[in-house]
Design goal:
Blueprint (H helix, E strand, L loop, with lengths): L1 H6 L5 E4 L11 H9 L4 H15 L7 E4 L1 H5 L22 H19 L5
Parallel strand pairs: 1-2
């Protein structure tokens, strides 16, 4: 997509990182075993953070990325959502998480439109 973005330098492209998920629950021994081979829950969260950080690393000034993942994980305090629903079992953000994300998005988009990002 970067070639397309380069062809339209006067257009602002806004992307958003993926939502974080709740930390998966699994049998303690199974989780430890899977972590040893790089496929357990701890590695899932780390891989998600690495991917979302990569997404933010565009070199084009007309492409901005809203880091929803970082906001909903407590700005890097965790690799899992801090705002789950349904008693902590659902990854969709609760009203507190939605309010936090919306507040930060308004500031983010205002700065982007005012050309502070490109």
């Amino acid at each position: 997509m970067l070639p397309f973005f380069r062809e339209h330098p006067g257009t602002l492209f806004v992307s958003m990182t993926a939502l974080p998920i709740v930390k998966p629950w699994m049998n303690r021994y199974k989780g430890k075993l899977l972590n040893l081979i790089g496929k357990g829950p701890e590695h899932m969260g780390k891989r998600a953070r690495v991917f979302n950080n990569w997404l933010k690393d565009y070199d084009l000034k007309n492409v901005v990325v809203f880091d929803l993942y970082d906001i909903l994980t407590g700005e890097g305090d965790s690799n899992w959502t801090k705002y789950p629903t349904r008693d902590g079992k659902n990854s969709h953000p609760n009203s507190e998480g939605n309010t936090k994300a919306a507040t930060e998005f308004i500031d983010f988009i205002n700065k982007a439109v005012r050309n502070q990002y490109f």
